[in-house]
Amino acid sequence: MRVFTWAILALALGLIILAGARVVAAQAPTPSDDDVNAVARELYCPVCENIPLDVCPTTACAQWRDLIRQMLAQGKSKEEIKQYFVAQYGDRVLAEPPRTGLNWLAYGLPPVVFLVGVFLVYRGMRGVIARRAKPAVQPAVQPMASPPEENVDPYLARVEEELRKRD
Amino acid sequence: MKEIMAEQATTTSTGKRLPLWVMAVSFTGLLLFLALIAWGLRRNQAGPIAIGQKVPGFSLTTFDGQALKTADFSGKVLVINFWASWCQPCEQEAPALEQAWQVYKPEGQVVFLGVDYVDTEPQALAFMKKFGVSYPNGPDLRTIISQMFHTTGVPETYILDRQGKLAYVKKGPFLSVGELTSVVDELVK
After folding, report:
1. Is B48 exposed, middle or buried (CB count within 10 Å of its CB: 0-12, 13-18, 19+)?
2. How far is B75 from chain A (nearest CA, A)?
3. How far apart, in whole angstroms, are the C-alpha atoms of residue A149 and residue A160?
4. Which of A2, A57, A63, B82 is the most buried (most CB within 10 A)?
5. Is B11 in Cβ contact with A127 (below 8 Å)?
6. Domain assignment of residue A118, given as a range
7. How far, in Å, are A122, A140, B7, B38, B180 from residue A133 at the CA level?
8. Is B3 within 8 Å of A67 when comparing Cβ atoms?
């Protein structure tokens, strides 16, 4: 009789646990399209180049989005899903190249080139401003000393002489 | 004239030249960058494997976890088929490929390898089940194999002779078993 009671209790407990598990499963949120697209927009399918996965209309991309949905439902994070896709299809599926190896050039070179450009423009502008400012200052300052007579090119001296005559 | 000379003197005083080491580093960096671009372009524009050319070895891990190397099949004719479950023409040729595999399987002189291109595993397995595909098949992980062959789409089939040289390329589906066996039979002889 006691065994029978225990068996009934165990059965009842099992049914309660089973029912509870079903309720939990039913309440598990299904990833929405927005959730899927939040991951998909950072991926590109190699079949349809230059079209982000979230807006790509091909069957291949629809399958990828289904897979993302399944992985989200399994509780995988965005990074885990992206890593899976990289492992399966290579780095080129990523919207942004991973920050490793030669890929650093893509991130490092543009700011360096920009800064060098800014420096060169600054330097050039400073030269131009200095050149323009100089004649205005010159009269106040002692004009540049004339070259010694013995260093004057006879040809230039003659040109100057001719110009003076014309004035 | 004096003004001109004065201006020239000003230019010389304000327009200082960059230090030599800065210029050397800049030019070296530029040359390295150009070399890198040239290397990348050359790599990308390298043509596909030509008929008669030795095909580099590769490995394929099948969906059931078997690690296969092409080197293990030396001396045999190798039929490498690129496919995907989302590809309609692949559905057309799948029965022909399986039938041909059944023809050659008993003698063991021909090996078929299916390379699943940019596909999801559940869909790929469903495709294989649907068409009863029984020869070894595996995903083209990181698309390394398709990049090596410079495939332009799916389906594409590459047939290697016993010496491992590329003997035949089919871009598009085989429409009959005979179309495939006529090529393979010539290589098996």
Report:
1. middle
2. 31
3. 13
4. B82
5. yes
6. 99-129
7. 16, 12, 11, 46, 83
8. no
- The CATH number given to whatever domain includes residue A39 is 1.10.8.640
Chain A residues lying within 8 Å of B119, measured CB to CB: 60, 63
Both A79 and A123 in a single domain?
Answer: no
Closest by alpha carbon to B3, among A50, A159, A138? A138
Same domain, A92 and A117: no
Please give the pLDDT value at position A156.
Answer: 87
Residues A35, A92 within the same domain: yes
Tokens of A81: 């899903």
Query: Is the complex ipTM higher than 0.85?
Result: no
Phi, psi values for residue A66, rounded to 5°: -60, -40
Alpha helices in B57-176 (DSSP H): 88-104, 121-131, 144-149
The three-class DSSP label of residue B79 is strand
Per the CATH hierarchy, to which homologous superfamily does domain B59-188 belong?
Answer: Glutaredoxin (3.40.30.10)
Contact at CB, B10 and A130, closer than 8 angstroms:
yes
B10 pLDDT higher than 50 = no
